[in-house]
Design brief:
Elements (H helix, E strand, L loop, with lengths): L1 H7 L4 H9 L4 E10 L11 E9 L2 E9 L5 E8 L5 H12 L10
Antiparallel strand pairs: 1-2, 2-3, 3-4
Length: 106
């Protein structure tokens, strides 16, 4: 999972799983569900579900599937340009913007 390492500094499969299990995926939004690519070698092909998410101000993409061998497999975990990032960023700016002080003599 090279992209998990380079994009989110998650170095092992266990760190990725822990990140997901401990609510690291904010603003999770379903993107699509498609048959897995034939190169995986499964017959029949399982469906892979994809989601976009944010973590802090960074956007991400997660895709996973349930293998015929009875295990959940993370297919993709990487940064993304899709999803709610821009909106989320503006919301964060609004939160961080200094509040106007009300004058006492008004």
């Amino acid at each position: 999972m090279t992209t998990a390492r380079t994009d989110f500094n998650l170095l092992t499969q266990e760190q990725v799983q822990s990140f997901i299990a401990n609510d690291g995926l904010e603003n999770l939004q379903f993107k699509n569900s498609e048959p897995l690519d034939a190169k995986w070698g499964f017959d029949p092909l399982p469906m892979a579900d994809a989601y976009t998410f944010t973590t802090g101000t960074k956007a991400g993409y997660l895709a996973f599937f349930y293998s015929p061998y009875g295990r959940w497999i993370i297919k993709s975990f990487k940064s993304s340009t899709d999803g709610p990032t821009l909106t989320h960023g503006f919301r964060m700016l609004e939160i961080l913007k200094p509040k106007e002080e009300k004058r006492l003599d008004e």
